[in-house]
Amino acid sequence: MKVQNTTHASSPRRVRAVGHAMTIHCAKPIRRAKPIHFAKPIGRALAGFTIMEVLVAVVIIGILAAVVAPRLIGRVGDAKTSSAKSAISSLVTAMNQFRLDCGEPESGADLTILWERPANVTETAWKGPYVENQDAFTDPWGKPYELVIPPQHNADFDIVSMGKDGVPGGEGENADIVSGKRDR
């Protein structure tokens, strides 16, 4: 019979089979790595933060928030205005494609003609929808874009967002955004 030597992590013994009888001998224990010792607190050095340290940290965070927050909030309005200008530009492109395929839209038409075929347009002329989804008709403030025919600012049509306040006119974020109109 063969001699087998096995050492197990849970019981460090060597088992040896000799003939029909088995004998168990204690083997040398497996040497394990020394445990990592963490620094022990000396006095109050590692005990925690004092209330004064916490208050100073809170005051510093408050000052930083007061300085940075107004700048970030102003940028959100600028981002929405830029997004509205970009969306209007896309709608103008879609409207021009509609005009090439179907002819001039009727006075009083709205932007849904870019999504659904108008009754006065034949099926063969209609190559739409001209926008990817109906969300394209809503400005960043949740109000619908308006198609203005006859136009007030351009030659063929205007696409207008009334800005944050949703009423004509205004300054800053409340200003109207009109297709083709340049900022002054």
Would you write up a description of this structure?
- The chain has 184 residues and is α+β, with helices and mostly antiparallel strands.
- The chain has a domain at 83-178: Glycoprotein, Type 4 Pilin.
- Helix content is 28%, strand content 11%.
- The chain is built from one helix and five strands.
- The protein has one helix spanning 51-102; strands spanning 13-18, 21-26, 146-148, 158-161, 177-178.
- The strands form two sheets. It has a three-stranded antiparallel beta sheet with strand order 3-4-5, with helices on one face.
- A hairpin with a 2-residue loop joins strand 1 (13-18) and strand 2 (21-26).
- The chain is elongated and about 95 Å long.
- The relative contact order is 0.10.
Quick structural summary:
This protein is of the alpha+beta class and 184 residues long. 28% of the residues lie in helices and 11% in strands.
> Structural class of the secondary elements?
alpha+beta
Give a count of the beta strands, DSSP E runs of length 2 or more.
5
Give, in spatial order, the strands making up the sheet with the most strands: 3-4-5
* Helicity, as a percent range: 25-40%
Query: From N to C, what is the helix and strand string?
Result: EEHEEE
Question: What is the oligomeric state here?
Answer: single chain
